Amino acid sequence: MSNKPRLTHLDERGAARMVDVGTKPDTERIAIAAGTVYMKPATLLLIRQGALKKGDVLTVARIAGIMAAKKTSELIPLCHPIPLTDLDVELSLDEPTSSVRIVATARTTGKTGVEMEALTAVSVAALTVYDMAKAVDRDMRLSDIRLLEKRGGQHGDYKAEDQ
Fold first, then answer.
1. Reading across the β-sheet that carries 99-110, which strands appear in turn?
2. Of these residues, 26, 131, 157, 162, which one is catalytic?
3. Whose CB has fewer CB within 10 Å in the chain, the N or C terminal residue?
């Protein structure tokens, strides 16, 4: 048996499979993900003022992120359904970069991690910001969606070096 890392969602023949987590112990799992939506300064101002026709961009994007995280296993084929114990989606306006910064924190006590739930929350929140403001700015750019930190599980903790 080789110590070479392998993709856990592939079997010995290379076929896609769902990982069996049945024998793993339940542990507290936390994942933090982030992303950014860059836009024109005028668009950011409209979001700040709540002046877009579709309504309160930040509130709707927060709710969309929460809803998406709860449906991650329906969106990502090999993800396990996970009972989230907490999910927080924070959106903040950053004037110097003319952007909306999104940070999602997902928590559970279970047999597998919540990285995909946190990443899904950020991704869908970012897409929602785009959807709500696209009428005034089709040049928006979704960027830097990534895992910042994870805690719990047999692979140990992870923290991105360049936060």
1. 86-94, 99-110, 27-38, 141-151, 158-159
2. 131
3. N
Q: Confirm if 55 and 141 have CB atoms less than 8 A apart.
A: no
DSSP string, the chain: ---S---TTB-TTS-B-----TTSPPEEEEEEEEEEEE--HHHHHHHHHT-STT--HHHHHHHHHHHHHHTHHHHSTTPPP---SEEEEEEEEETTTTEEEEEEEEEEEESS--HHHHHHHHHHHHHHHHHHHTTT-TT-EEEEEEEEEEE-STT--EE-TT-
pTM of the model: 0.88
Mark whether 88 is an active-site residue.
no
Instruction: Give the model confidence (pLDDT) of 104-125 as tens digits.
Output: 999 999 888 899 999 999 999 9
Closest CA to 99 of 37, 163, 46: 37
Residue bearing tokens 């769902």: 18
Exposure string (b/e) for 102-141, b if CB count within 10 Å is 16 or more? bbbbbbbebbbbbbbbbbbbbbbbbbbbbbbbeebbeebe
